[in-house]
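pasting for the record
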Amino acid sequence: MINVKLIFKHSFVYFLCVLLFALIANSTMAQINDVFRYWSDEEELSWKDFHGTEDDTTFCFGMHLGYDQHQEKVMKWPTKFSYWTVTPVIFLYDSYVDDSLKTDCNLKFRQTLFDYRELNCRKATLDYSKTLGGNSRYDILGYYGYQINKSKEIKDFYANSSNGTIKDTVDAFYNYVKQELTSISVTDSIKNINYGYYSVPRGFEIVMGACSHFYPTTNTVFDAERIGTFLMGMNFYSRRNSYGMSLTLGQRGISKQTMIATEDDTINVNEKILSNYLALQYERKIIDNKYVSVGPVISLGCVYYTSSDKNKNGEVDFLAFRLGVSANLHCFSFVNLLDGLAGGNSLRLCPYIQYQRDKDYGKVMSWGLETTYIFNISAFHGNMMR
């Protein structure tokens, strides 16, 4: 029998534990937010953000700035980008000001310094995302931190504004930095990175799919028949070129030369040919962007017979030559700009014509359509922009 009181008791205890955990987490986040605050374009600094004190009275003003970094993800179909963004923060209890210096001009001066660091953080984020400069994610932070501290613009700003006391100079540099900020959007810039499947230096792709192969009705060797086959392959690609090997299993044909009339005037088809096609393939992307890749495909291979009434089992007939055009429709892809990895999924349609020279049947022309699914993954370093 169900003990309702026991269930209620345990549920109530569980509810109290969850509530307590939520209160502790909320309190912890509140304490963290009281220690520092991020740069924001919606809320500027106020004198309430300067909570610190300084025992040495010769120092009347101090503004402690730092950096925070975290991973951001942004989606722009069909590509999902993952990158590290850098944001300046002000440490509230390490920043202080004497009451005599609390003027609107001086506060605007401090806000401009905060804005200037945000501007350079955006540049750092974009430089790291586009070039992956440095083996460590911290390298570029150290570099930009050094550049900001040694910046001639900042030194001139301090000097020309007399440490934030000359209003016209403060206003001019304040407006200049704000204008620069409006011209740089990290999210928009990341979305507009010209990433395509073949835009990166190198990678591999796995190909699986089906092939519909046809022999023309006027062919003197093979009877017209739609042939369904399975295709798989592995390709290596670099930029716009793709090199690989593919195996098409189960191409089947019927030889007209073996159609024999019997005594009762029926036709006895006594040779059905089952063969596979193994080929080296080259593909060139003429059109290549986030959404589609289009280009010619050339393959050179051999037909390997696995079933035939003329005891062709195990025979290899060379030459088989294919010429086609592929269109890859990119379904979804991802780019991790931090780790230098990219991958994606696409659907490829490739109509082709095939020339085959058979030892028994002579020259054979046929055509087909490949429909394949492609998964690829690549590792890139250095500048991925074209």
